[in-house]
Amino acid sequence: MIDFDQIDKLIHEKGRLSIMTLLSTRGEWAFQDLKAELGMSDGNLITHLRTLGTAGYLKETRDESGTRPRTSYQLTAAGRKAFKEYIEVLGEIVKAAQQT
Amino acid sequence: MSTTDAALENLRIIRSLMEKAHIYRAVSAPAALAGGVLALAASIWPVVYAQSHHGDAVMGETTFLIVWLAILGVASVLNVILLAKEAARRAVPFVSEGMRMALRAFAPPMLVGGCVGIGLIVFLHNLTLAALIWILCYGLALLGTASFSPRSLVRLGWAFVIVGLLLFFVWAANHEVRLLASDLAPASLAMGLTFGLLHVAYAMAVFLSPKAKEDEPR
User: Fold this and answer.
1) ipTM of the prediction
2) Do residues B34 and B1 make contact, with C-beta atoms less than 8 angstroms apart?
3) Where are the domains of chain A?
4) Per-residue pLDDT tens over the stretch A29-83
5) From the list A27, A72, A90, which residue is nearest B10 (CB)?
6) CB pairs under 8 A between A and B
7) What is chain A's alpha carbon radius of gyration, rounded to the nearest angstrom?
8) How would CATH label the architecture of A4-99?
9) Which residue in chain A has the smallest CA separation from B212?
């Protein structure tokens, strides 16, 4: 029996789920690249990134060496683990539904 | 929305985003445009010369080979520079997983096509067949990247294969062309139509298409 409380509510939101998915595909994503890929507004994206950052799921890096400061994000070990567990729970839900 | 529906929807989002994030464009559009223009320039001259000089060749077989290898070299170097710039802009390693996959898919048909084509020119003096082998193998190399390439690159691969096959049958069925004293003009025409025109068309399609649509997985 699946305990639906296992679902990580922080990730179980379309915007944050999309951010976690992209960050899980490769090491580092620049803010502008995330914005372009997800089609989110600056404010919306920043809010979701802050929420995930506060939970310890991602790490922010600022590079001010170039002409324009560049902020990029990557998953922490905790974020990677949480995302993996989240996908496993989704898989279990779908599997349980197929069996009934 | 039920929990199951939400789970399915979220799994779909994850899959779709992961596919998009793993798309790799092995042939940059500006490099294709530059290569296409060079190919057109290199192919028009022999065709025009042959028409105005009763089928005479404006250059020898070795020169034909050197010209096309030079165009390949210039376009490849430009492509590598543009891919490196794009990798730097996205803060990802130049030799990324996408590039490794592209090289693994590209290498076998390009190696076979390159060697057989050069062999046909050097030992059998058959420029047209060499050009057709290059066209078909390049098309197959592009199609080898279909699982992670943007749709325009896959279409370019199909265009090379289809046009290459059509040209092969036209050439094979037309003995007047096959028995020409020099086959520089038909070989140049085939190269110009494919490596010239198709690359220019590909570059234009990429420049004119909205980014989001272009990067959709097939």
Assistant:
1) 0.80
2) no
3) 4-99
4) 888 888 888 889 999 999 999 999 999 999 999 888 777 788 889 999 999 999 9
5) A90
6) 57
7) 15
8) Orthogonal Bundle (1.10)
9) A37
